[in-house]
Amino acid sequence: MHYKKLAVAAASKRIRTVLPTRLSTTTSSLLSLRRCLSTRDCTVSSDSSADPPAFTNSRIRSNPRATPSRDPRPAKPTTPLVVKLSSKDRPSKFKIPDSVSKTVARELLRNKYLFSEYSLFSPHRGFQKWKNHGLLKHTKIPDDFFRGRIPIKLYPYQVDGPRFILASPAPEKKEAPPAPAKPEYGAMRSHVQIVAAPTADTPGACLLVHYDNRRYVFGHLSEGTQRLFTEHKIPAAKLSHIFLTGKTDWATTGGLLGMILTVADVIISAKTAVEEENRLRRKKNKPDIVHGGPQRIEIHGSKNLEHMLAAARRFVFRKGFPLDAHELRADPRAANPENSEPDYEDENLKVWKIPLVATGMESRSRSSSTGSQNPRKRKLNSSEEPEAMETVAEEEDGEVVEDVPAGLENDEEKTRLLMQTIIKHMFDSDWKADTLVEQPLHKVKLPAKIFVRDDEGKITVYKGPLPGRDANVPDIRVLVREPWPGALIHRLPPTDPCFDSTCYIVKNHARRGKFQPANALKYGLPKWTFSKLAKGESVTAEDGTVVTPDMVLDPPIPGHGFALIDVRYEYLLDSLLRRPEWENKEIMEHIDAFYWILSPEVKDDSRLKDFMAKHNSFKHIVLGEGMNPNTISFAGASGKAIMMHRMDPDRFSIPNHNNQEEALPAGLASVAELGKPGERLLLSPTVEFQPKFANALMNTIRPIKELTSTHAKAFNLALEAQEKVSDPAFAARVAESEQDIPNRDAEIVTLGTGSALPSKYRNVSATLIRVPGYGSYLFDCGENTLGQLRRVYGYAETDAILRDLRAIYISHLHADHHLGVPSVLARRAAANAALPADEAPKPLTIISTSKYIGFLHEYKDVEPLDWSNIKFLTLIGTGRKPTDDPSGPHSADLGPGNNHFNMLPGTLCALQPASFRGNPSEALESQTGLASIDACFVDHCLGATAAVFTWPSGLKISFSGDCRPSDAFAQIGKGSHLLIHECTFDDELIGEAKAKKHSTASEALDVGRKMGARRVLLTHFSQRYPKMQAPVLDELERQEQSVSGGEKKGDRTVVLYAFDYMKIKLGEFKMAERFLPALRELYGELEENEEEDGDGAEGKE
């Protein structure tokens, strides 16, 4: 008897049911064999004795490891289903129920058909328990017991005959069934946590509602929220619902796209891992495992939420991640104010959506964002150039026609259906990039990659005349990649800005009352039935009485909840006061707290104070800009910046912050209190406010103490460097060697130096260039660039920089390079509005490819910014390489369909409109302050560019974006005074760099050598290097040591490593270079310490 093998197999869930054909062994040995086996899928009936024929007719699969038996056929089933026991084993008076508890095993024994129930104890105790409970004399195997299972014969484990294991076949792939609409009882434990309060780099207020199986976000998903989740180790794997408050604009949703992409990647990775595991398990005849996390994500918000998501179709694409967007377009209680049915409900909570209607805002409609009356046709205004849009064509009468899908101009339902279809294809498409469709060449719509079959049937790229471009197009059939469905919509139907605010009331479901054993004993129920009653199941007493749960349980415990009110604008207050929900007892009962998202515009309004005073039975918690202190949100990055400020105060500053406790206005202080990030409201099992979980304020002295004590060697090296650079003779030698570098006072500010997504120590890509006399320029503008600016310069100086901003260059469409642009534009518009009436704002130019400019053109329908002061310069393909004849025509001028065929890496870009071309260009200088812009396409993603900017003073700065090393870029950037190049990977990861189309440290430095760049700044580091890339610092340190004996005559290339919050002038590179040994020592020690502390481990709540 190989009992141990069977037990191990059962413990690993290989065995569902074991059916021996004959039994000639003792009961104790049987119980010993069966201790680990559980057949939860088996139900037993005692009213029939028919033997199902399914067992004998079932397909038999032999085990390859088994030893053949002489008679592989199972013994024939016998008709009698009676257990004959000796007198000492006769059943007691206790009749076996259908089940006992979790620790009960069920047995079916072939031939004797013995059915028993017992607890999982040792054999003798188990036997005694089974004996005391008694036996069922008549037991039937249910007719459907074998349905969907395969009986597998195992010869080694036969007991006087073959025995069988019932194995369930692989389940069909089906979507998870929807959660019950109205669950009977709610979760046992849940709480609300304040994740974010308004600060410089977390401008929105955000709540996290925590259940064991799911997480829900309520409030704003503003820029920086995703990074805050990382900072406080809040995993996003269980996030399933996002409820956005307020109106749809970038202040509310700026971090939404980044959060969606992160959650999608987490869930898709988990699903992929489960599928791979199941593939291996099926080979071993093991049952599949199921992905237990969220299967989809749902987003709720105000009008234009779908439009905002669909506008991102150009750069957002995931597969296998269903996403549903739900806009609140109508008042749920408009028809019946007394309606108390929730607007959303699942197994955990109920949500009532409350729309606050903007009164007096009817005049601020679509005209404020586009100036259009006809959604299909409109005149161009001064801020729009037809060449800037890939979807705009100019007609002879000076008007333009936007490529809006026909029939959708005024049909709201069809428009919503289109939006939902686009969103589905963005996140859960079954489209495959390698699918080829055959069609006539003249019907091919450009842009498209065209293939043909040669005489041997092989597929090759078509290189002949193109439809729409050439006159003589051959009448042949070609193969074309099926375009992604979202790309077929060139222009979304226009929409109007909406100023209504969405708010929520959230409540748990009622919980089952406490079980009272005394009540159960009154009915003569044994104790092993208590668990059934506690779970809500009814039990039949010995006298036939059916005991229901309500007969032995206390009354249900009501579910508690909270309200979240976003009322940042004065025009919403009247609607707030008129809402019928405040008088609806069923909705407001057991609401314990009101969370308020406020702004300086409404904080002194007496109506708000009166409302809170009237509803003084609730706890009122305020989260608002200008009320919550500007505390440091990202302690990891700020701590390192403080250390580096102590080492090199000229290049690094302490992040702008305020740890002083702010006081609410006098009117609000008497009725409300200020919320703090981290504070919790426990909703179940009891209601309790828990301020003890509030995030502690960062101690800004601690990093300095750590530097001077723990990292004393690095600090001493920094002091030596400070002494060196303060030497007047050193400064004189540097100035003499840099006499030919113009604008040595130009300042480079590295606001974000990480790649892909924000991390604890690095934000995503953004570099600010400040050139005195010309203006400020942003090269890439990743999420939360505005917050990084405010940490470096403070609020007032940031506004001054934004007013001086002349151009924003976006290198490519990956989200980590441009999601910060809308908030920068919004804040710039507000800063310009504060200018004196006689001072005109400076024009701003956005430079990128047509796809990104198309995104901005669609988004401007959502948020009414000052678009009249913004121009667009589009980078289009020329098809020429730097070595080609410059006098040749721009092939881009030959037709719009040709642009997409000339985006090959290594080819040059041209500016559109054509009036901005030239070197120098008067139009370009007037608009941007630049003499010329040269760019080329690079090897990264479709349309990725690198650019060279030249100022009238002769200053030349080259910016690589993301790319593999590019000879074309090195050619157009020759003689650059500064090269800013990506350095995503170490040299040892050259294979990964090639696969992901990034550069290593040595490759970036090689581009600088080919370019002859005087200064090189390395940035855009993989987030796998949380602080620094040690090999890069080794290389830079060796370079610095090679000239430590004194400066060479003339100048040489100086290479530096970028950090978040770093400010360095072009003439200070050699000073900063002296600190490389100190930085190398500091970060080597820091990374060693964190490895010992396990800082790299995954976060947990």
From TrEMBL:
<dbReference type="Pfam" id="PF23023">
    <property type="entry name" value="Anti-Pycsar_Apyc1"/>
</dbReference>
<comment type="similarity">
    <text>Belongs to the RNase Z family.</text>
</comment>
<dbReference type="Pfam" id="PF13691">
    <property type="entry name" value="Lactamase_B_4"/>
</dbReference>
<dbReference type="GO" id="GO:0042781">
    <property type="term" value="F:3'-tRNA processing endoribonuclease activity"/>
</dbReference>
<dbReference type="InterPro" id="IPR027794">
    <property type="entry name" value="tRNase_Z_dom"/>
</dbReference>
<feature type="region of interest" description="Disordered">
    <location>
        <begin position="42"/>
        <end position="80"/>
    </location>
</feature>
<keyword id="KW-0540">Nuclease</keyword>
<keyword id="KW-0378">Hydrolase</keyword>
<dbReference type="GO" id="GO:1990180">
    <property type="term" value="P:mitochondrial tRNA 3'-end processing"/>
</dbReference>
<feature type="compositionally biased region" description="Acidic residues">
    <location>
        <begin position="384"/>
        <end position="400"/>
    </location>
</feature>
<feature type="compositionally biased region" description="Polar residues">
    <location>
        <begin position="42"/>
        <end position="66"/>
    </location>
</feature>
<keyword id="KW-0862">Zinc</keyword>
<dbReference type="InterPro" id="IPR036866">
    <property type="entry name" value="RibonucZ/Hydroxyglut_hydro"/>
</dbReference>
<feature type="domain" description="tRNase Z endonuclease">
    <location>
        <begin position="193"/>
        <end position="255"/>
    </location>
</feature>
<dbReference type="GO" id="GO:0046872">
    <property type="term" value="F:metal ion binding"/>
</dbReference>
<feature type="region of interest" description="Disordered">
    <location>
        <begin position="361"/>
        <end position="400"/>
    </location>
</feature>
<keyword id="KW-0479">Metal-binding</keyword>
<keyword id="KW-0819">tRNA processing</keyword>
<dbReference type="GO" id="GO:0005739">
    <property type="term" value="C:mitochondrion"/>
</dbReference>
<protein>
    <recommendedName>
        <fullName>ribonuclease Z</fullName>
        <ecNumber>3.1.26.11</ecNumber>
    </recommendedName>
</protein>
<keyword id="KW-0255">Endonuclease</keyword>
<dbReference type="InterPro" id="IPR047151">
    <property type="entry name" value="RNZ2-like"/>
</dbReference>
